[in-house]
Amino acid sequence: MNPVKVGLLGLGTVGGGTVRVLKRNAAEIARRAGRGIEVVHAAARDTSRAHPEDIVGMRITQDPFEVVNDPEVEVVVELMGGYSPARELVLKAIENGKHVVTANKALIATHGNEIFAAAQRKGVTVAFEAAVGGGIPVIKAIREGLAGNTIQWLAGIINGTGNFILTEMRDKGRDFADVLAEAQRLGYAEADPTFDVEGIDAAHKLTILASIAFGIPLQFERVYTEGITKITREDVAYAGELGYRIKHLGIARRASGGIELRVHPTLIPQRRLIANVDGVMNAVLVYGDAVGPTLYYGAGAGAEPTGSAVVADLVDVVRALTSDPENRVPHLAFQPGSLSDLPILPMAEVQTAFYLRLRVADRPGVLAEITRILGSREISIEAILQKETDDASGEATIIILTHGVREGNMMDAIADIEALTTVKAPVVRIRLENLK
């Protein structure tokens, strides 16, 4: 059979990696897909970044709509990123009856419902494995491998930049700003690192994971998002003393009143496998009722790891080209008419444990007053650690770990504690998950 003709939007890092994987493994890919896969048309603003060998045999244009409207192209691979013109290009490709593969998590998280509805009407596939976790096949694992399970919860380290920063802070006792500057020098963080360090990138990915895990519409705007910019090396060290590590987690959990959907710094026991995922690596822990916990680990970014996921999607699309659209794997794992209307819980209703760091006057009765306030809000204490007193200021640092509590109760308790004259600084609070 003739090779499937592919149009590529974007020849940057991931685009180049995708082309290299396709060319290097062409014979193996054809054996798996049943047909060859060939990039015939590509769009790039700046072709000088592309390796000359990567673009041999391709028509190159600066106008991506030329690729989308090319009648020879059967599958469009969108690797431009961002919201626009990616949305317009993907919708045009669908309108033209072309299948789409994308690595664009922001696009899927914010416009995926619209895109999948359009694809359903036209009977084409939109594949997006590379949008979450780089080369880790976690979307396929949840959507297909765990299809017999009711997913109870998932928790992921899904941003390599943030994980690198927290790892360096822990291993070398460095400050956040210092490590961020190094991450930018190494190319792990952008000049504007907001999407990474404030959790927006992770929230995009969590939106996608939660939809395929629980069969709910994509709802990025309802993800609670908190970054790591306020994490100090002291908190990282204190957590270690207590047997925990701080990770920037995306957490989605099925609860009695709805779905928890949140990204924030989290203490997790250092004995957990996911607590030992360091540097720029990613990992997602998924708990299914039948299978129990499963962990997916690997490179969350990079040219060929992400290209690996793009090519895997291409293979799936090629396999499905002759199949009945009604019998293909649904985009969000569940049949389009069977998505759930389970609500996303507000953070005040989320149940989680907490790490609290308090700076207090070192005098009798202070700790008793603090524990009284916690008790009045039905907050029980798991552990207390008091650090040495600062002789110059006469102030001490107290670390408290709590058992699970409704977050609204904790926020009320913190407000009462901060109102005490003996509490000398705002209370630092970091959520804690045992991930059992």
Explain the overall architecture:
By secondary structure, this protein is α/β, with parallel strands linked by helices. It has three domains: 4-135 and 303-338, NAD(P)-binding Rossmann-like Domain (Rossmann fold), CATH 3.40.50.720; 138-298, Dihydrodipicolinate Reductase, domain 2; 348-432, ACT domain (Alpha-Beta Plaits). 35% of the residues lie in helices and 25% in strands. It has 14 helices and 17 strands. It has helices at 13-24, 26-33, 64-68, 86-95, 105-122, 138-145, 160-172, 176-186, 194-197, 200-214, 233-241, 303-320, 366-376, 407-418; strands at 4-9, 37-43, 59-61, 75-78, 99-102, 126-127, 151-157, 224-225, 244-255, 258-269, 281-288, 292-299, 351-361, 381-386, 395-402, 405-406, 428-432. The strands form two sheets. Strands 7, 8, 9, 10, 11, 12, 13, 14, 15, 16 and 17 form an eleven-stranded mixed β-sheet that branches. Strands 3-2-1-4-5-6 form a six-stranded parallel β-sheet, sandwiched between helices. β14 and β15 (395-402) form a beta hairpin. α1 crosses α12, α4 runs parallel beside α5 and α5 runs parallel beside α10 (200-214). The longest helix is centred in the first third of the chain and has 18 residues, at 105-122. It is elongated, with a radius of gyration of 24 Å. The mean pLDDT is 94.
Identify the notable features of this structure and list them briefly:
single chain, 436 residues, alpha/beta, Rossmann fold, Dihydrodipicolinate Reductase, domain 2, Alpha-Beta Plaits, eleven-stranded mixed β-sheet
Gap between N and C termini = 50 Å
Runs with pLDDT <50, length 5+? none
Sheet-strand content, in percent, reads 15-25%
**Share in helix:** 25-40%
> The biggest beta sheet, please?
11 strands, mixed
Mean pLDDT equals 94
Oligomer: single chain
Q: Any guess at the CATH architecture of the largest domain?
A: 3-Layer(aba) Sandwich
- What structural class do the secondary elements suggest? alpha/beta
* Number of H- or I-type helical stretches: 14
CATH class of the largest domain: Alpha Beta
